[in-house]
Amino acid sequence: MSLSNVFNIAGSALTAQSMRLNLVASNIANAESATSSTGEPFRGRHAVFTATPVTADMPQVAGVRVTSIVEDTSPFRLKYEPGHPLADERGYIKMPNVNPVEEMADMISASRSYQTSVEVMNTAKTLLQKTLQLGQ
Amino acid sequence: MLDKISDHLNFFQQSLGLRAKKVEVIASNIANADTPGYKAVDFDFGKALQGQLRASQSGLALATSNERHLAAQGHASVDDGGLQYRSAVQPSLDGNTVDMDVERAAFTDNAMKYQSTLTFLNRRISGLMDAIKGGQ
């Protein structure tokens, strides 16, 4: 039934977008973490979205899934702080490669997409309910 | 007699089915608004409806092996599969062609039309009920 598939599709989008929001939260929280369990500064993380078909007969109609999480490979930010215990001989410490401005933009984009998917679900729910009342 | 009732409702039945399919297709576009490389899809409602109606007129007859069997016509449900890629209004660098404004407008438009089809169908049913009850 087509309209029930909408719940699967929009539901998959909700999961994926909330995963993206989680990653943004983790990136922003760790924007100043000069060291982590690996000994290196924290690297920004991003979700990779992939379209996944929900029904076999229409492969182009797809939900979305987070298939992997990649670490940002851009260079670390260098900060001059000679008194810091992690500073190198020139007085610089490596800081995470997280750009808070980009993260905020990413957060807004993720939350807008989440809201739209919720709206889609609500509309599908209304349509289904009205269909169930057909002929009454 | 049941054939006639079924014929009476056939147009809106087909139309409603296609509208539900369109909800699904657009929900898929919205869900994949942030998926790199995803191409937005849609189908031509008018053409699909004409195809469905043509197919339902040359419907499937029930096989009879005895003259006392009831003759009945079923409607062949064809999957038109006429999904086409939308041409991008503003192509983005990641290869995604979903334009959120276009999709939201199409979704709302489609939901409204689904509801109007439901209203028409409801009126047809109440018309039939009136005829059956003979104005009592």
TrEMBL record, chain A:
One of its GO terms (cellular component) is bacterial-type flagellum basal body, rod. It is found in: Bacterial flagellum basal body. It comes from Vogesella indigofera. InterPro entries: Flag_bb_rod_N, Flagellar_basal_body_rod_CS, Flg_bb/hook_C_dom, FlgC. Pfam families: Flg_bb_rod, Flg_bbr_C. This is Flagellar basal-body rod protein FlgC. PROSITE patterns: FLAGELLA_BB_ROD. Transmembrane segments: none annotated. The gene is flgC. Residues 7-31 form the Flagellar basal body rod protein N-terminal domain. GO terms for biological process: bacterial-type flagellum-dependent swarming motility. The keyword Cell inner membrane does not apply.
UniProtKB/TrEMBL annotation, chain B:
Residues 19-39 form the Flagellar basal body rod protein N-terminal domain. It is found in: Bacterial flagellum basal body. InterPro entries: Flag_bb_rod_N (IPR001444), FlgB (IPR006300). Keywords: Bacterial flagellum, Cell projection, Cilium, Flagellum. Belongs to the flagella basal body rod proteins family. The basal body constitutes a major portion of the flagellar organelle and consists of a number of rings mounted on a central rod. Structural component of flagellum, the bacterial motility apparatus. Part of the rod structure of flagellar basal body. This is Flagellar basal body rod protein FlgB. The gene is flgB.
